Amino acid sequence: MTAPRPEPDPATGSGRGGVALVTKPTTGLPSVRARVAEINAPTTNAEWELTTRVLQWIAVVTAVAGLAVLISYPLYISALASSNEAGQAAAGVFSGGFFTVRLVLLGLAAVVLALFWYRSAGTAVRENPKLLAGLITAAFVLALVAEFMGRSLHYDALFRIGM
């Protein structure tokens, strides 16, 4: 025969059930509305400061990655141009207006807008962050277009060797 289980103690949460017995179940429309109101409550100063710090770090990483891509392109093209026939033909794709527009868009999105984004994140007003949201959206759209252009250049640079 087994020993009887101890009765739960609501004060300590020990026994059967633990916390579930201590807290009252929250179901129904009033509890859902209360939770939605809690989620949509105005941002506190600490939350806003954390948000702007994270956005500033994202802007720094974006600018560094954009610079790395802008610096690596000339190195990549010069390596292609100094290789065999297929490499030289592929290097020819990375010249002209389409490639120049891709580099300009990448430079605008990743470097220039990221620096403005960093600066405005530090001074954005919590109640009206429209400038910050606009800069982030513009940088995303420009980077997306530049990446699609880069993907196109990548596929254009593929040349068959041999069969």
Secondary structure: elements and pairs:
Layout: H1 19-22, H2 29-39, H3 45-81, H4 85-93, H5 97-123, H6 130-156
Number of strands: 0
The termini sit apart by 81 Å
> Could you state the order of secondary-structure elements as H and E?
HHHHHH
Largest sheet: none
Q: Would you tell me the overall average pLDDT?
A: 79
Principal-axis shape: elongated
Radius of gyration, rounded?
28 Å
Structural class: mainly alpha
Poorly predicted runs are 15-22
Strand content: under 5%
The percentage helix is over 70%
Per DSSP, the total helix count is 6
What does this structure look like?
The chain is 71% helix and 0% strand. It is mainly alpha-helical. Helix 3 packs across helix 4.
Summarize the structure.
With 163 residues, the protein is mainly α. The chain has helices spanning 19-22, 29-39, 45-81, 85-93, 97-123, 130-156. It is elongated.
Structural features:
single chain; 163 residues; mainly alpha; 6 helices; 71% helix; elongated
